[in-house]
What we know:
Blueprint: E1 2-3, H1 5-30, H2 35-61, E2 63-64, H3 73-78, H4 80-96, H5 100-123, E3 127-128, E4 132-133, H6 135-159, H7 167-191, E5 193-194, E6 200-201, H8 211-261, H9 271-288, E7 292-300, H10 302-309, H11 311-328, E8 334-339, E9 342-348, H12 353-368, E10 371-373, E11 376-378, E12 381-389, H13 396-412, E13 418-420, H14 423-444, E14 448-457, E15 463-474, E16 478-480, H15 486-491, H16 495-515, E17 523-527, H17 529-532, H18 537-548, E18 555-560, H19 561-565, H20 568-581, E19 584-590, H21 597-602, E20 607-610, H22 612-617, H23 622-637, E21 641-644, H24 650-659, E22 663-664, E23 673-674, H25 678-684, H26 688-692
Parallel strand pairs: 12-13, 15-17, 17-18, 18-19, 19-20, 20-21, 21-22
Antiparallel strand pairs: 1-2, 3-6, 4-5, 7-9, 7-12, 8-9, 10-11, 14-15, 14-22, 14-23, 15-16
Helix pairs in contact: 1-2, 1-4, 1-7, 1-8, 2-4, 2-5, 2-7, 2-8, 4-5, 5-6, 5-7, 6-7, 10-11, 11-12, 16-18
Amino acid sequence: MSYNPWLVALSLALAALDAYVAFSVVGRIARSRGPAAVLWTAFGALAMGSGVWAMHFIGMLALEVPVTLGYDSRQTALSAVPVVLATGATLWLLGRRGTRASAVMAGCILGLGMAAMHYLGVHALHMRPAVAWSLPWAAASLLLALAGSTAAISLHSIIWRRERRHRWWLRLLAALLLGGTATGVHYLGMVALRFAPDAVSLEAQTGLRGLGLGLAISLVSGLLLLLTLGVSLAHRQLQRHTAAIARELGQARDALSWLAYHDELTALPNRANVLDLLDRLLPLARDERFEVAVMFVDLDGFKSINDTLGHEVGDEFLRSVADALCASVRSRDTVARFGGDEFVVVLERFRSEDNLSAICQKILSLVSRPVTVAGHGVSATPSIGVAMFPRDGEDSASLLRHADLAMYSAKEHGKAGYCFYQPRMREQARDRLLLSAELREALQRDEITVHYQPKVELDGRRVVGLEALARWQHPERGLLLPNSFVPLAEASGLIAQLGQVVLRQVARQLAQWRARGLPLVPVAINVSLQEIQNDQFVAGLVAALREFGLHPNLFELEITESAAMKNAEHTLRQLRQLEVLGFQMAIDDFGTGFSSLSHLRQLPTQTIKIDQSFVQGAGRNPADRDITEAIIALAHKLRLTTVAEGIETEAQAAWLLEAGCGIGQGFLFVPPLPAEQVPALLLAERTPLANAL
């Protein structure tokens, strides 16, 4: 007997394609669960089983013998059942178990299924007399089915232990091996077949036969396999796309989760993170009886850095502060940024209050160190408030609130320090809140009055000016000084209204003194940042002077150094407009802010006021003395007048005069006076300006 070489080649190609598709389906089964896995197994079993069966049928049609052959359609179709079932079991084992034992078991099942299919298919010839078999060749075909299937499946199992870039050629090699096994089983089985010389096929006339039938079966089977392969590849791409979307969603979810619990600028935990931490930590601390401390840290002077050097420098400085805070505590402690220039430190299992004090000192030391950012040397001092669990609060909200109160207490005591929470601080906070509400009413009831502190020539001791200082005549608390209510006015947005009240009182008083024929001197009025940033400030100022018929040269507007540096371009425009109108201007508290000398040169100011902290500290601290003398020298270079605040002794007055400062204020000369006592002072000290008016 002989074989049609084209049909043999076709059967071999079909078997290889069938094996490659089968191994592709294994991946889909492995990545599916539930009904999807069952569906893929059934679909793969049908496609692969029909492919092996088609290969066998084509191989039978390729046989050329002198006897006309035909195949019983029922038994031929029945011969596909073993290989379909075996293929299904093989795919399920490979898709669900990747062990070596499961690969051997799958190979044996598939080999037996192919052998059963072959011999059932040959029986469908219905030969008379019956065919004879060569047992050695039949045994060889069975051994090839078992060994070849096991080897191919074992090789495929290696795919799952290799990197992806090696899988394609391993799968191709395994497919060729399995396809060769399937065709080898068939053709070895055909070698084992022996036809009798006078044998005939009972199905020669009525059974399945013909080359066209074989080609049709090949076409249908090939299309089914290609369809299966296409669906498998599409499903794989869909899974990859779905996995990519899932990864992106997971990354986005992780990023959102990170952003929800971390500060983007410093990468520190944020407010929500700290609250969550304390909610978990405090019950544990209560059960295990250990203490927890919360430190609230606020930077003094940071706003000046941000406003003068820009937000980029400010952001970089905040990152350096975050690093300094982390270096100040243990790795198990938590440093968080609450927003702006506010940070929180959570410490657990600290040894004692003295240990907390040492940590506060370390924070003060490390955070206060000057750092160079974008070529600028900058620094800011921290104010720290400390609250301890369970002494100062039983929950996160109360601990944070009390630490915040302690921090404000540290600021009130001079900044650059730390305070532990005390119950009285809560009463003080409540008192500030009450006082803020009363201030709003006081502005309506004319309880704000103005006192005047003279500016005196240090040489001749003549009065050359006055400074208007607000006082609050509280109906219950008595006369309140500015430091007790001006910060409240700034915090509550009442400072502009307070400034307007002071301006109108001063203008009215000057008009009254002029009507009485008193010699007048310029009166300095403090202007807040909120006022100078208001576009209507200049118009309101001019309107008040026009109402009382006063010339702008009777007014000197004092703006603090830090306020002058904030939004410098807008401030400069406002001040130049005031200069054109005839107002005099002075920089107050010079040396306490974060000045830019280039901006200072551009400001249309005539006077620099030296902060009283330098004057009063000069006797104890040589640095304060040096700074004061440097400010005076700078003012001379810029052709500016210097006014020293807070002079209390003759020694201070003599030193300042010798250093070149011409004008001073302080209790050494005259304390702030109510308006009714000023006329006597003006009459006693006649000035050139008075003669000119």
